[in-house]
Amino acid sequence: MDLVVNGAEQSLDLDPRTTLLDALREHLGLTGAKKGCDHGQCGACTVLLDGRRVNSCLILAITLSGSEVTTIEGVDHPVQQKFLEHDGFQCGYCTPGQICSAVGMLDEFSQGWPSAVTGSGPPDLSDPEIRERMSGNLCRCGAYPNMVPAIREAAER
Amino acid sequence: MKTFTYRTAAGVADGLEPGATFLGGGTNLVDLMKLGVATPDVLVDVTRLGLDDVAELPGGGLRIGAGVRNSDLAADPRVRGQYPVLSQALLAGASGQLRNMATTAGNLLQRTRCRYFMDATMPCNKHDPGSGCPAVSGDHRNLAILGASPSCIATHPSDMAVALAALDAVVRISGPTGERTVPVTELHRLPGDTPERDTVLEHGELITAVDLPPLEFATRSTYRKVRDRASYAFAVGSVAAALQVTDGTVRDVRLAFGAVAHKPWRASQAEEALRGRPATRESFLAAADAELGAARPLRDNTFKVALIRNLVASVLEGLS
Ligand SMILES: Cc1cc2nc3c(=O)[nH]c(=O)nc-3n(C[C@H](O)[C@H](O)[C@H](O)COP(=O)(O)OP(=O)(O)OC[C@H]3O[C@@H](n4cnc5c(N)ncnc54)[C@H](O)[C@@H]3O)c2cc1C
Ligand code: SF4
Ligand code: FES
Ligand code: FES
């Protein structure tokens, strides 16, 4: 099957059981996306699929023929610098997923997508909005308080 | 994971060979395959059938394609404006990443989160008919209080389905023997003696769309979900409601409960008890009691009865 990963075309010959996460890590050597739970429960495996954030552990790679995937290795976004400035991480295990998720989330926000805490008007990127929209990414180190301002400032730029 | 072959579906009426299963966004099915609970021989991918539009119906209402992603549906301005309960229910479910993959049909047909069901090594009448139900005497804190049977007390975990049940949505189905429609409230079965069957769908029947009939007062509708953490957790109990009040009297109402039964639970008796009554907390509680009289909670989930009762009252107060 063929797909584009971080701008480069890749031709892969995969067992149909291979998830996108395993294809990236084991077949393409892109180990940025992490395997936390392997069941959609933690967000460590988050990548961008055709520009949208998804959990790569629950997607079979074979279904993605013709798609474009961006992993943390292919991300170049102000949110990365802001994570450094605000100490948005401790051990760093969840960080690639947090950053990819934040990039996807900011794009969703700029398209006017609501969240569970959005009222009837247009959403603003308040701290409760950031927390709700990022709730699919867990951090065992609890670095959340520093991620929130990092993401807010990245959005303001 | 057991090995399988993969193909994309060629058309909506193709049906399925024995041992084959449709694949939507995969967020539930792939998970269950990893757990060894789902063991299909063939996966038939239906995400490339072009069923991903939300269209306006001629007489009013919306037709939601089976493949529309939950995130796109929640953000659709027509859904947000005319059926806020549906947008809110979708946004209350799962996470941003999961909603970007999850489809309308896959969400409706997601399987129970009963821990024994999800553990292939445990007995469970749903994944291994006749093996027993360890939940009855075991961990059932989040399982059913309505419509359960001694064979199975599982709950249906979808938030979206609760809103669809309240809105009288209709499921459009296509298969080798033709097309048919089924109201969302009749799509899922009660467990009875055959809990291995979640729904009335026959093997090979494909959901192509879900129709939302027009409902003017659904502009005043909402979804409230109670869960064990602030976000990214399944419901412990939920209520979808739409309410029409004139001069302090309930003119019309739609009510459905989530996480209480093997199906999204349309609270018709509560609705009946409310029409024509004063829109007061007292009537709301009385209506909840009319529905919950049939509740048969178990050792560790009696709290759900009071939880739903209070939710009904506060949700309806909020809407009136
Ligand atoms: C960590 C986690 C948290 C979650 N939290 C919530 C939550 O809070 N609330 C909630 O509601 N949900 C929650 N979910 C569940 C999620 O909403 C479902 O997994 C998702 O909606 C399933 O959609 P899908 O398209 O990925 O389905 P799939 O996994 O692709 O399919 C599910 C089932 O539907 C069948 N199917 C798919 N399409 C069709 C079709 N067109 N016709 C006939 N059959 C079809 C498949 O054969 C399969 O049996 C959560 C999931 C995870 C992993
Ligand atoms: S409640 Fe149903 S799904 Fe859970 S163990 Fe019992 S039979 Fe299985
Ligand atoms: S590894 Fe994919 S969500 Fe945890
Ligand atoms: S920084 Fe350690 S898990 Fe988030």
TrEMBL record, chain A:
Protein name per the record: 2Fe-2S iron-sulfur cluster-binding protein
Origin: domain of life: Bacteria
UniProt keyword annotation of Metal-binding present: yes
Native organism: Paractinoplanes pyxinae
Boundaries of every 2Fe-2S ferredoxin-type domain copy: 1-75
Keywords for the protein's UniProt record, in alphabetical order: Iron, Metal-binding, Oxidoreductase
Database matches in PANTHER family: ALDEHYDE OXIDOREDUCTASE IRON-SULFUR-BINDING SUBUNIT PAOA, OXIDOREDUCTASE, IRON-SULPHUR BINDING SUBUNIT-RELATED-RELATED
Signal peptide range in chain numbering: none
From TrEMBL, chain B:
InterPro entries reported in the protein's UniProt record: CO_DH_flav_C, CO_DH_flav_C_dom_sf, Diverse_Substr_Oxidored, FAD-bd_PCMH, FAD-bd_PCMH-like_sf, FAD-bd_PCMH_sub1, FAD-bd_PCMH_sub2, Mopterin_DH_FAD-bd
All copies of domain FAD-binding PCMH-type, residue ranges: 1-217
Superkingdom field: Bacteria
UniProt entry keywords in alphabetical sequence: Oxidoreductase
Keyword Metal-binding in annotation: no
Alphabetical list of Pfam families matching this protein: CO_deh_flav_C, FAD_binding_5
Record-linked PANTHER family: OXIDOREDUCTASE, XANTHINE DEHYDROGENASE SUBUNIT C-RELATED
Protein's recorded name: Xanthine dehydrogenase family protein subunit M
Species of the source: Paractinoplanes pyxinae
